[in-house]
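Anyone able to model this chain together with zinc ion?
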Amino acid sequence: EKDEGGLASPMPLARRLGKEGLPEWGEHCIAYKELQREAEALVGVDGVNEENEAVFKFHLSYAIEQANDFYLQMEGQAKEAFASVSHAVSTVAQVHGDREAKSQRHSGGAGGGSSAAMTPASTDSSPTTSTDNLWGAGVPPLSHEEMDTLEMVFEGWKKWAHATRRHTLSDYINDAFMVQLEAGALKAALLDWLKLLMFIDHIRNFAMLNSVAALKLIERHTSEANAPSLREHLRGHEIFRMQGLCGLVLEMEGVATMLSACLSNEAPHSPPGVANTWSPHVCPFCSRTVQNAVIMPTGRTCCWLCSVDSSYSCILTCPLTAKPQDLRSLRAERVLSRFLQRYFPAAYRSGPGEVTGNSANMARDKQVQQRTAHGILSMFKAQADKKEKREAEQAARG
Ligand SMILES: [Zn+2]
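re: yes, here you go
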């Protein structure tokens, strides 16, 4: 790894393939280490042995095809899941729309300031801010003891998330948020939608890491005679282009708009007209809206395909910072974070490590945090009560 001109060495690809994917997907990944070992053995004293290279080419093609088959299978599953999620959300939105219309008629039309006294005291009546209807009204202030406990809980939570660099569903849409949201079709649809987003993130990560692994093997270990055909072979596969997922992510946008409208009783947070450009970032290579975004170590996002096309020997020079970077250190941008940030900002902000510097949001953040706090504490209490009850029962029996 010394021939890369003093580049900071990224985490070994083999380790990322093993660590970042779902464990049960491991067997479908390109066997990077084994192929690398095989490739290194190709070069003898007389240069590259052509016969051995043909065998290597065959093995690599086979590995790419296996990974691609699995990718297509997962993409198919995601599309199936999307059909059912989208159906569930449309149904919920329909019911929600009907109820809205009804309550507006009851309150005498356009629901201004006077409507508060007229509408029934349900949880979705007259929200003051977008997510207020998700939380029970009249939360009592926290005691000092409760505050201390919480401080510890939050710190531990943030540390864990930072150390593992993992964002799970519960980090964002935390338990308190979910507990307060009435069980029913809307909650079920929201959970299914979030699960699908995470699934899409996993598939994108799988596709990106395996493509980089294949590129790396091709560009470093194959002769000029064989590399172009292998590169073409890789580019011919869906796993490399990820086109299907790109379309699916756009369709998820429509569902997000419906969900967030149901949850907030307001217009969605995105201004009209930008709904179809899910990423606000502009790619520094092609100057268009980023497609299948990857994050460079400099923190900038760009299109996945642009990053590959602009790389030379798997080294990419960021046009904005002029810094060279290894393709292996790219990360697939998480679709989940982007959607949550945009459609569920309160839930996103209460996730780990997301600190907003905007002072206008500070009061709101504090309020959300305190409500989250109450939710977490009541869960702890419920758990403790359950344990106590169980122990009492055991004692009574014994
Ligand atoms: Zn681009």
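The radius of gyration is 26 Å.
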